[in-house]
Structures are given as C-alpha cells and as structure tokens.
C-alpha cells in the first residue's frame, strides 16, 4: 500500500497509526522530516517527491521481496534436508532432494529437473538458499545452473552430461571450485 502523507483530513502517518493491524506501507511525501517517523511505524520504504521511476521501481521490488519472503516461510519445510515444498503455479509440490538432477535459473524463475519426472517451475525465492543450494550435494557450476553432484555421470570438455542428452556448461567463474571438488572426490591425484 502506498500512502501519501499529506491528506486533507488526516495525515497518512496518523491514518497508519490509527489502524490496529496496519498493513505494510510505502510512504510518499515531499517532506523528508517525516522519514524517521515512517520507519518507526514499520514502513517498507519512504519515497520523496518528485518520485522518479528508478526509485519507484526499487521500492516496489522491496515490497515484492518482503511479501515473497513471508510467503516463502509458510510454503517450505525448513528443518528437513530430505525434501522441500515448492510453490509452483497454484500448487505446493513436495520434491525429494535426492531426486533433483539440476536446477536451471531463468530470470525470475527456476526450473527444477528431477529423475523420471517433469520439471517443476517456481520463483527463485522459493528455491533459494535452503534445501537445494544449502546442502553439500549441490554446486553452482554456471550462473544459470546448480547441479546435484551425486547425479553426475559424465564430464566432458567443461560440460556435465546427464542421461547422455542434457549438457550443462561449467563456466569459467565456477571452474576452479568444480575442479577442487573433482580432485577431492574422484581424483586423489590430479585428473
């Protein structure tokens, strides 16, 4: 909710303070002296007029991140390392972590690829940190790919191959860390 502090009968600040359960708000005003008071009522942001598009967009993204983080807390089992719940479309789907072969990043979304199942699409925030990337079974090998290290069957020319038909590139940024994993796990002496 965006609230303009300068309303004729009641200020935006007075309005928010009068609510028993105030919503998350972003205050907009031409007066910077109200900023501290805005944050004291737990405002998500405080925009000074004139409001430019970049400031508006940043504020809207902050609000989206806050709402998605709240939604994320209610749709994921955080204490279990064997499975996670992912919100996809209008469903919440249980995914066994051991079934995941790789996770493919696509802008705001990720596609989770699993053994013998159709991929599941969700937002980045539903898969981030816990579950997939927080375990040592997974490693980022490319800006767009996190792979299950236990599912790798072939590595060829800086590519990981799953099922002989899916090729995942290993980018220069992640090559050294992946090589360390190979040296430690598969090659006691240099590969």
The fourth-level CATH homologous superfamily of the largest domain is: LytTr DNA-binding domain
Q: CATH architecture of the largest domain, please?
A: Beta Barrel
Main β-sheet, spatial strand arrangement: 8-7-6-10-9
Radius of gyration: 23 Å
Number of helices: 5
- Please identify the structural class as seen in this structure: alpha+beta
What does this structure look like?
There is one protein chain. By secondary structure, the protein is an alpha+beta fold. It folds into two domains: 2-74, 3-Layer(aba) Sandwich (Rossmann fold); 83-185, LytTr DNA-binding domain (OB fold (Dihydrolipoamide Acetyltransferase, E2P), Beta Barrel). Helices cover 28% and strands 33% of the residues. The chain is built from five helices and 13 strands. The protein has helices at 12-18, 35-40, 53-74, 124-127, 172-185, and strands at 2-4, 26-29, 45-48, 83-88, 91-96, 100-106, 109-114, 117-123, 138-142, 145-148, 154-156, 159-162, 166-169. The strands form four sheets. It has a five-stranded antiparallel beta sheet. The protein has a three-stranded parallel beta sheet with strand order 1-2-3. It has a three-stranded antiparallel beta sheet with strand order 11-12-13, with no helix packed on it. It is elongated and about 70 Å long. The termini are far apart. The relative contact order is 0.08. The model is unreliable at 72-79 (pLDDT under 50).
């Amino acid at each position: 909710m965006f609230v303009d502090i300068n309303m004729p009968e009641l200020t935006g600040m007075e309005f928010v303070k009068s609510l028993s359960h105030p919503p998350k708000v972003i205050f907009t005003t031409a007066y910077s002296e109200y900023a501290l008071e805005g944050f004291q009522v737990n405002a998500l942001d405080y925009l000074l007029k004139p409001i430019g598009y970049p400031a508006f967009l940043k504020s809207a993204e902050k609000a989206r991140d806050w709402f998605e983080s709240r939604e994320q807390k209610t749709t994921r089992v955080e204490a279990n390392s064997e499975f996670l719940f992912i919100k996809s479309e209008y469903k919440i789907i249980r995914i066994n972590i051991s079934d995941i072969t790789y996770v493919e990043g696509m802008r705001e979304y990720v596609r989770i690829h699993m053994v013998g199942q159709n991929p599941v699409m969700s937002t980045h925030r539903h898969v981030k940190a816990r579950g997939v990337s927080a375990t040592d079974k997974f490693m980022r090998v490319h800006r767009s790919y996190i792979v299950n290290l236990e599912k790798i069957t072939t590595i060829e020319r800086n590519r990981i191959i799953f099922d002989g038909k899916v090729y995942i590139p290993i980018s220069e940024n992640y090559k050294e860390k992946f090589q360390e994993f190979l040296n430690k796990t598969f090659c006691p002496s240099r590969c």
